[in-house]
């Protein structure tokens, strides 16, 4: 097709450079306003991308433009773009529309534009918005980007609370999403996205205070999801996400931005490794309920006051001592036995049976707060006497103390004999005390001697205590062997 009439000097240069893919540089920076020498109509760019100009044999045609002020709507929705588009340091008056288009490689780097619509876009190469300032939503729902998505250093800002700054639900990215040092104000939506090659958002600033800063429910990431050193204000929702690799918040800052909201909602998630060690204490609740994580690396200094851990399973824990882990599982507002059972099973699995028993003991002590007064009293008795069966040596310790007391009492005030001399055994204070404490008549002393005076009450107390200790020991051991 011949060169159309009415082209400006800048447009004519672009038209003539297209067949060879030569860069047309109109300036080194994005223009602040509509400079007449740098204005290029969007319809001219659209015509070139849709094949209005004949390519030259032996060259790769492309639109490569720098420093232009693009007026009008760059509308390629539903079209087939056979050539590369590269805009650098350009200013676009209207948001480009590539919705449902099929394209090669799209690069709008270090540009200024009011938004971008790529819903349903299919790109054989990558889509790059790196370094650009975008004053409206970037829409990429259902987009399929074979060469990846690059947003390093991009700034996206939305002013409408109902709008998402980055709306990319159901997006498929084959080579990775790179958004290092980006700034996104208004929320990022990646619900149902599949990102092969990793999600890289190190040093990013994601802000949507009191709302969802990142909504990535059911997202699937292959390789790693990196939020290291990121500053996130708002909720990060990873419910039912699957991270086949590393999920890292190392040296990040997590703040829900409003009281009573979650900073990290990662329930029902599957992840190989979770590195939850931000630069400071997390501000807002963290939910890991019903998630399956192979390795968790965290630290007590960063835990929020409220955690949701019921149903969480893991293979390995790193960071924090035993007492810290007890504090960790006790931060759930509602008591559940599963976090205690899981922690106990983990300590048992790594050979620390003593710590596993301590976790079970802690579980019983917390549980008794929710029972009625009679049950609470019985639980306190089980705790003091046998440690709910996890400390049976306590019963023997109590038994030893009572034997010592009884021996001293009945040595000072021996009981009187109630059998004839030839039938009664020789009195022995120690053996007599044993006979009182043991619920069955073992040595015959209890049937042969009757305490007198004030020592009678000591004898009654020893008999009653013996039954209590025996009952508590049997109940505690039964509870350990049959916890259900």
Describe what you observe in this structure.
- The protein is α/β, with parallel strands linked by helices and 484 residues long.
- The protein folds into 2 domains: 66-368; 376-481.
- The strands form 4 sheets. The chain has an 18-stranded parallel beta sheet that branches.
- It is rod-shaped, with a radius of gyration of 37 Å.
- 42% of the residues are buried.
- Residues 479-484 have low confidence and may be disordered.
Outline:
With 484 residues, the protein is α/β, with parallel strands linked by helices.
SSE blueprint and pairings:
Elements: H1 9-17, E1 24-25, E2 39-41, H2 42-49, E3 62-66, E4 69-71, E5 84-88, E6 91-92, E7 102-103, E8 106-109, E9 112-113, E10 116-117, E11 122-123, E12 127-128, E13 133-134, E14 138-139, E15 144-145, E16 149-150, E17 155-157, E18 166-167, E19 172-173, E20 177-178, E21 183-185, E22 188-189, E23 194-196, E24 199-200, E25 205-215, E26 220-226, E27 231-237, E28 242-248, E29 253-255, E30 262-265, E31 270-276, E32 285-287, E33 292-298, E34 307-308, E35 313-318, H3 322-329, H4 338-349, H5 353-367, H6 373-386, H7 393-412, E36 416-417, H8 429-437, H9 445-448, E37 449-450, H10 455-481
Parallel strand pairs: 1-3, 2-4, 3-5, 4-6, 5-8, 7-11, 8-12, 9-13, 10-14, 11-15, 12-16, 13-17, 14-18, 15-19, 16-20, 17-21, 18-22, 19-23, 20-24, 21-25, 22-25, 23-26, 24-26, 25-27, 26-28, 27-29, 27-30, 28-31, 30-32, 31-33, 32-34, 33-35
Antiparallel strand pairs: 36-37
Helix pairs in contact: 4-5, 6-10, 7-8, 7-10
């Amino acid at each position: 097709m011949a060169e159309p009439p009415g082209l400006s000097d800048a447009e004519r240069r672009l038209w003539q450079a297209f067949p060879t893919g030569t860069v047309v540089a109109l300036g080194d920076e994005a223009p602040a306003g509509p400079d007449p020498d740098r204005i290029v109509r969007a319809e001219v760019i659209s015509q070139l991308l849709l094949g209005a100009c004949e390519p030259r044999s032996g060259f790769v045609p492309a639109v490569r433009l720098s420093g232009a002020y693009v007026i009008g709507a760059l509308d390629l929705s539903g079209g087939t773009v056979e050539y590369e588009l590269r805009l650098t340091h350009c200013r676009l008056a209207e948001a480009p529309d590539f919705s449902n288009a099929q394209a090669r490689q799209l690069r709008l780097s270090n540009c200024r534009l009011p938004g971008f619509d790529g819903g349903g876009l299919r790109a054989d190469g990558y889509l790059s918005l790196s370094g650009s300032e975008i004053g409206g939503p970037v829409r990429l729902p259902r987009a399929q980007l074979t060469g990846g998505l690059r947003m390093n250093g991009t700034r996206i800002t939305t002013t409408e609370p109902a709008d998402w700054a980055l709306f990319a639900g159901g997006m498929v990215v084959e080579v990775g999403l790179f958004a290092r040092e980006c700034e996104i104000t208004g929320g990022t939506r990646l619900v149902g996205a599949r990102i092969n090659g990793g999600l890289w958002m190190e040093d990013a600033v994601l802000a949507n205070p009191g709302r969802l800063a990142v909504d990535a429910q059911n997202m699937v990431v292959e390789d790693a999801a990196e939020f290291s050193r990121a500053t996130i204000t708002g909720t990060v929702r990873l419910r039912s996400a699957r991270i086949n690799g590393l999920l890292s918040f190392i040296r990040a800052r997590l703040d829900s931005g409003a009281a009573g909201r979650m900073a990290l909602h990662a329930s029902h998630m599957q992840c190989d490794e979770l590195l939850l060690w931000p630069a400071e204490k997390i501000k807002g609740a963290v939910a890991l309920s019903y998630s399956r994580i192979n390795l968790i690396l965290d630290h007590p200094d960063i835990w929020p006051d409220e955690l949701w851990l019921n149903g969480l399973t893991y293979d390995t824990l790193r960071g924090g001592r035993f007492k810290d882990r007890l504090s960790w599982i006790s931060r759930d507002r509602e008591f559940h036995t599963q976090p205690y059972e899981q922690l106990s099973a983990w300590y048992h699995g790594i050979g620390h049976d003593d710590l596993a028993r301590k976790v079970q003991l802690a579980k019983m002590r917390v549980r008794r707060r929710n029972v009625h007064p009679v049950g609470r009293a019985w639980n306190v008795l089980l705790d003091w006497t046998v440690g709910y069966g996890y400390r049976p040596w306590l019963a023997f310790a109590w038994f030893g103390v009572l034997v010592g007391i009884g021996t001293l009492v009945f040595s000072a005030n021996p009981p009187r004999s109630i059998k004839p001399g030839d039938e009664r055994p020789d009195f022995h204070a120690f053996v007599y005390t044993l006979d009182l404490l043991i619920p069955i008549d073992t040595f015959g002393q209890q049937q042969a001697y009757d305490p007198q005076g004030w020592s009678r009450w000591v004898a009654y107390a020893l008999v009653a205590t013996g039954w209590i200790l025996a009952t508590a020991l049997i109940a505690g051991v039964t509870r350990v062997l049959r916890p259900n």
